[in-house]
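Q: Give me a backbone?
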Amino acid sequence: MEGHLRLGDLPHQPDAITVNSRHLSRGGRPWFPIMGEFHYGRYPAGEWREELLKVRAGGVTAVATYIFWNLHEERRGVFDWSGDRDLRRFVTTCAELGLDVVVRIGPWGHGESRNGGFPDWVPATGCVPRTDDPRYIELVRPLFEQIGAQLSGLTRGHGGPVVAVQVENELHDQPGHLVTLKRIAQAAGIDAPLWTATGWGHARLPPDEVIPLFGGYPEAAWDTAHDGWPQQSRAHYFFGPGRDDDSIGADLRTTEVTGSDESHLARYPFATCELGGGMYTSYHRRPIIEAPDIAALGLVKLGSGSVWQGYYMYHGASQKIGALSTLQESHATGYPNDCPVINYDFQAPLGEYGQFRDSFRHLRLQHLWLAADGPDLATMTLTMPPDAPADTADRETLRWCVRSDGRSGFLFVNNHQPVETLPAHEEVRFAVELGGRELVVPREPVTVPSGAYFVWPLARPVGGSLLLTATAQPMGVLEGDEPVHVFCQTAGIPVELVFDATTEVEGPATVERDGDHLVVSDLTPGTGCLLRVRDAAGARAAVLVLDAGQALTAAQGRLWGADRLVLSERPVVIEEGRLVVYGEGSSDVRIFPAPPSATGTDGVFGLLPAATGGGRAPEAKVEEVRQAGPARPPVIDPASGRASAPTDADFEQAAVYRVTVPREAFTGEEEVLLRLDWTGDVGRAYIGGRLVADQFWYGPAWEIGLRRFREEVLEHGIEIKLLPLGADAPVFLSPQVQPAARPALELRSVTLVPVPRTVIVEDAG
């Protein structure tokens, strides 16, 4: 359906964004946004540019951010848009880096923020929030006018980066109010071609006014402390046309979700804003989210029809402490979940202090592919096999599907889910009828291992040739005189490429003609696995096939005048004139096409040295000041029935350690992490008596970035307070980290971890 949505740019606008019932378009061709959530108000403004470059390096093309009301108008009538609250500076920085922006203007936002982001004075006025109550609307109007002023000149009409606006969040029963908010926002100068609202919980949204956005998480910190895996999370590891997840926000709904009809959603493209980039830790539920849990969920949404991938969170952050109160979600303000006062790391692909996580690499692999094939994928629809699993209790049937436009497509396979291991599947082949022909892949049956998830191409162009099938995942295209199509091996399955018979292929492989097919086999994926492909007209292209490990180290971007692929064991960020390598190590960086300054070769890749560190890291001095008292007995919130977090008074019984950091730990503007390997319940870190970091212990080491506190750290040192985990604490922990005995409290080590940046520039000589 076309033209029915009250959305989109004016048609004559250059680079016009439009939307139909199937997908988004930009500049006249299909457009596939990749969106990552990053909260400007919870991160130091001086580090925004560096972190946004990391976000962009992960393949994210649009940054979504909440505008938390309580960060900007904590006291009624007194607005603060300075420093870390400078929305305009943040949006401008995104624009300078070529990133689109999606503003989530609320007024209610949630995001584990106190009162959902409302300042305390809003409910105290006696109005009925989140409705068209005139008393409430008159409170909202000045906020939107302030936001409009901040975004003045940055909207699409002025060539700015703001492509979408979300009104409210998780509001499921007030469609008229959403229209009211949209109209007030537009009157205040807040405008964008796309308007959105969260659609989960079978939300009743105003027809054709907003695009409903959906989500899905590998786990749910808002669930109870029961052992095992939340039931609703299972659905996100099965392909299918369903979009909704009624568990998100269920802890805050006062009415039961009824019905499952999604037929009205056919008017809108399948778009997401909250695919779990991780999960926060509530006091009573603290799951560990692994990288494959995140990436497999994302791949399932792509297979199921998503045309807009949105991750929450993509970059972790730290909650602010307000002038009047702490600003985290808590039992004290009527929420069912107690959250850390400061920590909002979310186990995200980029952490609370900009740490690169394994999930960053796993998601980037998908984003490299989408950068090339996303526009085509956006037009493709879902087809499920006849023997697809009937329900989410099925752990035996192999999960797969196809998205296609009738001529070309992609085959998706998922054999991974968290917690409950899925079995390997032997003797597997897939048969797909496409464009009037049957494609069978692979030619000989293979085993799909437990934990595997991947996408394979079907009848896709490689230059002027047609790649009918491939048992390798596409990773994008390096543009140039001879385009290079990059693939990677999946799940240990031998790589086999089948072209149409008019194609010629040369390179390190066995090439055989089989009827109207050209079969390429016996490849050894790696840095030297480059094939030359020529179509019937003589046009040339190339195919590069990496192994699975190399693929996870791959970054792509414009570097030194060419579109290049970079393989690096350490994280890299590509800018036009330089390559920034993060972390200590001595490994070379591999670059294809090889730059003139390469000092050696590995296959078709050039080598550039990027050694750093090597010396002994400075040591922190740790002194035990006080041993812990007895473990705190459980405290249960009467409203939610869930365990409550310790209070300030409880920390009078904490173990206390003083950590002294030597001045030589800080070099330049680079980050230094304080890493605490410990077991217990809750930890807090103070500098000069000020709380600067905290953690609900859940297994992984606790990391605190010291760069932002440098002068204070050198002057005061750091005070660490740790509480023991009680024998009967009613909290969920992932089984692999359960302490052998309780009460449990142990500080095993405190180390300083420098995060140097090595900058490589091309030698003009």
